[in-house]
Amino acid sequence: MALPLATRATAAIATTASIGARVYTATGRQLVLRAAFQARHFSASQAARLASDAADANAASEPREAMEYDVVIVGGGPAGLAAAIRLKQLAAKEDKEISVVVVEKGGEIGAHTLSGACIETGPLEELFPDWKELGAPLNQPALEDHMKYLTSKYALPMPHPPQMSNAGNYIVSLSNVVKWLGEKAEELGVDIFPATAASEIIYSQDGSRVCGIITNDAGVDKEFKPKSTYTPGIELRGKLTVFAEGCHGSLAKGLIRKLKLREEGQFQTYGLGIKEVWEVEPDKHSPGKITHTLGYPLDYKTYGGGFIYHMEDNKVSLGLVVGLDYQNPYLSPYQEFQRFKAHPFVAELLKGGRVLSYGGRALVEGGLQSLPKLHFPGGALIGDAAGLMNVPKIKGTHNAMKSGILVADSAYKAIVAEGQGEADTPAIMLSDYAEAFKNSSIYKELHEVRNVRPSFHTSLGIWGGIVWSGLDTLLLKGRVPFTFQHKDPDHAMLKPASMFKPIEYPKPDNEITFDILTSVSRTGTGHTENQPVHLRLADKAVQVRDNLRVFAGPEQKFCPAGVYEYVDDEANPGMKRFQINSQNCIHCKTCDIKDPSQNINWTVPEGGNGPQYVDT
């Protein structure tokens, strides 16, 4: 009998070492996170808090170390770092003091950043007009654009949509760009805490105002009891808290629900992007070449497409995005990506090359009609945490950074007006941010393309979407008196397995296509052993009782890291049990989005855990 993934993964996945002593200097204060902290008693309420939905929990009553900042930013990606940099630049220009901290759950800045990526440089130029002289890692300009429709054997040329033109853009490793932004932020005096997971939001007593965040407790075992390495989380309190966690952030999802920020908009809809970076043979490399594909391997009812970006140094970034509103529970986005690579058009490029890295991440696709309210008492949402990706462009980095700039401009004015008061002064409302957003290039972009993504929900599937998208982007430019609505949330789009035939995917050839554990081993993923499982089930019976029986266990298919399995239940012969291999998790958030029973809650593991992406 085959061993479960949890056992087979041991040799394939590098686990991270225990996080040792870390010392950060924070604007005249010193914070020491000790690997061995004096053991403290866990009350029953503390254990219950840890076991609950951390995103909705209020601050624990147990005393904690606390630090005060003007602005607390959750997430060290393009949006969060752009906001931090802009705040410090504004303060320096007027000789003011503003304290800013960025909390990042990845082991270092960029470790959890994954994107295509071909980016527009406008917001970067706003922050650093001399970014080229400063050595920003944008080295490969986009030189040519191609669009292909793939059949099972052929690649047919298609007209290239103007929205997807990349003239003036750069093909980059976004993880490297983010690292560079992190360095610049530190030079400006931003306090950056990597390997630090924000696990809770601090609300005011009446629950109406955000006052900061609490970082995750470290050194807790699977039973929620303190180990010898126990280090309690700390409170980071701010006059403003900006959430820049990226797509479907673990705190933002609870915040949006608690403060009812989506009352005036639709639900969000998502895609799952899976990619690899390859080193290809020099004679097959065309620096600056960009190709996007539609069609194979996806059927006409499934939204998605492929991308192939030729970077510098014989590197190629390629991937497949699958809309998570797909209906067939037997569909595996990971296996569809393998089929994409095996297509003759793609395989010819990859033959003789080697894989350098792999990764996967959910991305927002809802557009304008899915935006939540962007500000609230004590804070704001920016970047993909707000849902600012332009789907037809297949880009979001420029909008993420621009939103960071906009929120920083508003926050700076508000904080200066408040003076140097304590963090418990009346809540700041960033209404200026909402107004600036409405008048920004972000809103103009999203309004113009608002009907493109939902147009793929018609009975004509991808063909109807292509026809409407062409008409809308070429002629109408969004100038129509109506806005299409999304059909249903992604988890509700999944249909019972009885309506479909199982999909037989080919076995990997270990040259171009690979098994899922081999791919996960290329992410550098690791999680500290004997910690609480960060993938929480509201009801442990639901997966077997409902998901396996009705949907044939879709968790085994939609996860791109082999986290979920249905294995033989030795205690109940002839039955299955649901197994979570949380050490495989690459933090893509797909399970939290696509689980048809909405029984899986993705929460943060210990800081520094998860993937360690390189060149992604």
Give short descriptive properties of this protein.
616 residues, eight-stranded mixed beta sheet, seven-stranded mixed beta sheet, 26 strands
Oligomeric category = single chain
How far the N terminus sits from the C terminus, by CA atoms, comes to: 36 Å
Largest sheet: 8 strands, mixed
Low-confidence stretches: 1-61
Query: What is the CATH topology classification name of one domain?
Result: FAD/NAD(P)-binding domain
Q: Give the strand content.
A: 15-25%
Question: On the 0-100 scale, what is the average pLDDT?
Answer: 90
Please identify the top-level CATH class of one domain: Alpha Beta
Number of strand elements: 26
Helix content: 25-40%
CATH homologous superfamily descriptor of one domain = FAD/NAD(P)-binding domain
Specify the number of helices. 17
CATH architecture of one domain: 3-Layer(bba) Sandwich
* Shape descriptor: globular
Question: What structural class results from the helix and strand content?
Answer: alpha+beta
Q: Evaluate the radius of gyration.
A: 23 Å
Organism: Coemansia thaxteri
Cofactor: [4Fe-4S] cluster; FAD
GO molecular function, one term: electron-transferring-flavoprotein dehydrogenase activity
InterPro entries: 4Fe4S_Fe-S-bd, ETF-QO, ETF-QO/FixC_UQ-bd, ETF-QO/FixX_C, FAD/NAD-bd_sf, FAD/NAD-binding_dom
